[in-house]
Amino acid sequence: MVDQSMLLCCKFFVSEGRNIATLDAVERAVRMNPEIVIVHKFHDRAYNRARYSLVSYVLHDCTGNAIYNPLQQIVLAMAEAAFNAINLELHDGAHPRLGAIDDIVFHPLACASMDDAAWLAKAVAADFGNQFNGNSHKT
């Protein structure tokens, strides 16, 4: 059984705020998993950037260590959708950016801990590095 009070939030920033097809592709990646909820989204047309706030549960082993969170796979799917849809050579916007994915932040909600959020951040960073060779843009 999932403890609904152990929740983690991901703030996912993508370098696109105008192209509806691109934003739909990123959001489709989230809708692949009903265990994740988009609790807020903000599309900034002037900066040409969007932020998604995603929430899901975290599971722990018998010693209390975090072992699973659905966000881990979905964040990678969102990144892949963004990489496939965003061409930074044609991109314009008022906000400086480092790549198609601008920032990924994790923090605890309810009874989850900062250790849980740190575990997820490290897991996503390792997977990101393995899957995308550490790039924040398509190579």
Automatic annotation (TrEMBL):
* InterPro entries the record matches: Formiminotransferase_N, Formiminotransferase_N_sf, FormiminoTrfase_cat_dom_sf, FTCD
- The record places domain Formiminotransferase N-terminal subdomain at 6-138
Look up the EC number in the record and give it. 2.1.2.5, 4.3.1.4
SMART domains assigned: FTCD_N
Domain of life, per UniProt, equals Eukaryota
Q: Which PANTHER family match?
A: FORMIMINOTRANSFERASE-CYCLODEAMINASE (PTHR12234), PUTATIVE, EXPRESSED-RELATED (PTHR12234:SF5)
Name under which the protein is recorded: Putative glutamate formimidoyltransferase, Formimidoyltetrahydrofolate cyclodeaminase
